[in-house]
């Protein structure tokens, strides 16, 4: 087509915001602060039987980053990136650009206004035009190697180092390491993917993709813990209120990570076929929970406090001492668990489903997770059915105010 | 735990149906017939700004299988299976079992009542307990090799054979062939995965997994064509009413496939990074559509009829003759397109996103697709940005009445 045709025939460009307005999608949901209020599984739906998703807009700004204490969404797109530059100024600029992009993405806007000039690539890849934000949250973290590469030696912290090798780990090189993580969560898979894609695109001169994984959760009525692919509820003792998050999650020492947290990710392959051939008694003994209700043995409510010393009327312990729940609880520390299921087609070696858990958790000190994983690593009956194949630790910055940029306290 | 403890401590088992009733989830949505009524993109949401998903229950029974004319869902789990038995009676029984399972799955029930005996594996894998059906549909099809393997020579049809090699095809062995396909679609990824997992599990003595792919769609307000990962709308000329489906989709000769259709699947890798470096003019010329509105060149409505002979005021053709829309339309046949996006982490060769389109379409005669694909194959500008890596053709049986089983007319 000639340029002349171009002028005549192309639609007048409208901004995505205008587009949304046209569709009556803006302003219906109030902005929700990302300041850590509310339990992970708060009742976020207004309907009784119908599930209402996506319309609320979450702010990128606040005391803490979003996507940590935010009630969990249906989808995640998690990306680990490698730095290909050691120029601090360039990287700083990338985080400034990412701040600008993230604010817009979380509002459901284009990452940049559409250009009148058709002879350049669109600034936004465009696959979310016309959609609401679907409760999109974007969470950034950096790894210990990031500090090394940028020679930020004075920002190092004793506790912030690569995770140890845990008993039975079978970590693959392709699923470990990396310098930066971006966690995009939303109630729509395309919205989450679009966010990471556009952020990566903006930084592509400075970064490459190390590994990524899409994940999903069945949110249901939003009041129960979503089931994993073994059909069980897990992580029912998550922080439930601001005070819990303060105690368990938010880093509170007075340095660049203040109001941030440590994100730990584990890619856990679940051997579904083996599990599916295991009898119900054994399955329940493995978790130490009833499958149907999700309650720990001896309780009826999934959210009941787990008491590892509890004995039945016959004087015997209620929880098997090699059960997942017993060993996790025995570590006597808490974490905020925000895990998603994944399914990646067929495992080429086994010919079975390649599926599992993209385990993500947040804690103010890595030792919280390390203590739990060490307790599980040797004895957990669940190890017969799972394999940890990926790992990562990232320091997620504190939240920022408008006018600041994500990571600012690290760079300045 | 001892059996004695078992009796004392395990929750009284309740059926999933009871569970749903308890949660107030049953009966809220009326059953929707699968008989082909309604357009693919019917307005399926009752809220204005909020999107309400999943609550409607779709019947497995009807004149046609569900998941073909059903308004498209947010998620698909598509599986291609290989037969490992040539015993017709065994396979027939598997389809009977699958019919029983599918009816229950689409109602949001367990595939079989939970057993009192804890010493056997649960019959249902359980990861959807407590969820509503999320508009689950399950669609079964068989390939030409299925007829060969079961020596059903008298059921063969001249038009039902493996697809030809199309220009520029780069089909991988792992993504072609197979004897049976199962398409599970739902507004929840875990519900779709659960359906295929439990069906495969039931038949595991007779079948193995060949390839599977999960896919997603941004449904938005349900009135617009969902955008693909290039940010474009495609397939806007889908059948819109019963008459269209009758003309385009439903097989109407008087044999075992009556009221069924041919499903064609193409796994299409999309080279996102290349596309993202292409200017907007070139992107729009490639599709022959405006990116923002989705309308074909020269029109303002995405659903406008495409007129390949239309000329602008300057007398020049409006649609580039190598554009996707021009060439698809030039073939002068219609299909029912029901495609989903996919993202599978990183392509290990390129280090870029492994993402694309799980293209699925339905037609009463394979030549409809073949004619379009031949028109596209040589000249479509879009070929610079995509690669077809997987392929399949399956005959999807007609619908059944309660008491019948899926595929019955083929076997008897």
UniProtKB/TrEMBL annotation, chains A, B:
Catalytic activity, per the record?
heme b + 2 H(+) = protoporphyrin IX + Fe(2+)
Q: Which domain of life is it from?
A: Bacteria
Q: Which InterPro entries match?
A: Dimeric_a/b-barrel (IPR011008), Dyp_perox_C (IPR048328), Dyp_perox_N (IPR048327), Dyp_peroxidase (IPR006314), EfeB/EfeN (IPR006313), TAT_signal (IPR006311), TAT_signal_bac_arc (IPR019546)
Q: Where found, per UniProt?
A: Cell envelope
Q: What class of enzyme is it?
A: oxidoreductase
Q: Where would you find the membrane-spanning parts of this chain?
A: 23-45
Q: Listed GO molecular functions? A: ferrochelatase activity; heme binding; metal ion binding; peroxidase activity
> Dyp-type peroxidase N-terminal domain spans which residues?
65-216
Mainly localized where? Answer: other
User: How, per the record, is the cofactor bound?
Assistant: Binds 1 heme b (iron(II)-protoporphyrin IX) group non-covalently per subunit.
Presence of keyword Signal: yes
EC numbers, comma separated: 1.11.1.-
Metal-binding: present as a keyword of the record?
A: yes
SUPFAM superfamilies to which the protein is assigned, alphabetical: Dimeric alpha+beta barrel
User: Which cofactor does the UniProt annotation name?
Assistant: heme b
Which ranges carry the Dyp-type peroxidase C-terminal domain?
Answer: 225-399
Give the keywords, sorted: Heme, Iron, Lyase, Membrane, Metal-binding, Oxidoreductase, Peroxidase, Signal, Transmembrane, Transmembrane helix
Q: Name one GO cellular component term.
A: cell envelope
User: What exactly does this protein do?
Assistant: Involved in the recovery of exogenous heme iron. Extracts iron from heme while preserving the protoporphyrin ring intact.
Output this protein's name: Deferrochelatase
The scientific name of the source species is Leptotrichia shahii
